[in-house]
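ok so for the tutorial part 2 we go from a plain amino acid sequence to predicted structure tokens. step 1 is just haveing the sequence, like this:
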Amino acid sequence: MTGQPEPNAPSEAGAKSTLRTFAAASFLNDLGSDIIYPVWPIFVTTVLKANMAALGFLDGLGEALVSLSQAFSGYYSDKIRRRKIFIWTGYLCGSLSRLGYAIAAVWPHLIPFRILDRIGKIRSAPRDAMVADLSTAGTRGRNFGLLRTMDNMGAVLGVIISIVLLNLVGIRALFALAAIPSLASAGLIFFRVKESRDCREKIFRGMRRRDLDRNLRRYFLANAVFALGAFSYSFLLIFAREAGFKTGTLPVLYLVFTAAAMAFSLPFGKLSDRIGRKPVLYTALGLWALVCGGFVFGRGRLPVLIGMFVIYGMHKAALEPVQRTIVSEICPERFRASALGAFQMIIGLCALPASILAGILWEQFGAAVPFAVSLILTAASAAVLAFVKENRGTSAD
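step 2 — the prediction. this is what the tokens look like for a chain of 397 residues:
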């Protein structure tokens, strides 16, 4: 059963073409995103004079908006039986937001553009639902892993561009430049992806709360608990700066973890196809626990911190593709986009208090405390995950 295509699936050639287009669009969009991500915390705290609590608010707000936008797009993608319009529109929003970042004079000016940027994530749930529909149970982990590999490959190139051009053109011009690749992503989806009528006809018209069975709710709970402690990467970079890394070297640390994520995303995706999803997800939680422990007990030693950024990249590579793969397999096929959107909504809503709390704990009690709290929440998440059952079939119907 694991190698059989799902009913009404598009032709193999059409599926491969669409997956290649998604991969190319993901590459370009993350290239643009990661031109600015390595310097984002420095821009907010140094150029715009925000404190750590404000940085936590901006990052947490971003993740919360991601969650709401994905829940909206997942539900309405199922309801109106369309995927494509959410995907290319999302890339376009991301492109426009970066132009706004470039003109911000004080940190509150970032808020509306942060909202626009994160609303751009309306693309994710419909795209992930299409990827799941275009895959078999034996290739789904690999395909999600490939998508993350291309994300991270674009991110690596984006970080390199950031490092090379930052001192040449300045941070604001860099933000404006970052708008171009995402605009190209929108064009790729608009002109190259086609939705067949057959695929649209099988999409369920909306998901209700009672459609979430006990197993899916447990899975949502396990990931929500973890997300409450999984604050944004910005805190890792600021910790490294306070430990002795110069501001100009922080993009290099971002490059280290992004390159590790690129190298391991596809292998972890393939591994989940062979040994199961949960073992890889447990690996992701364990890697995050190592990161927290390294920051708490590494005493700020620079070689240890570099190693922690490598492990952080491995954590991301194991976590993100497998999280989505499990959702797509333990929910009924007819509302995959809704379930994926609901999952991202829960994760994002937990990310808002996670980053705000981390910022407050950092300011009040020191940098080690947010990592210690995250370790406790990671252990609790792993305990809940033990009660979740996998479903490696084609759907949960």
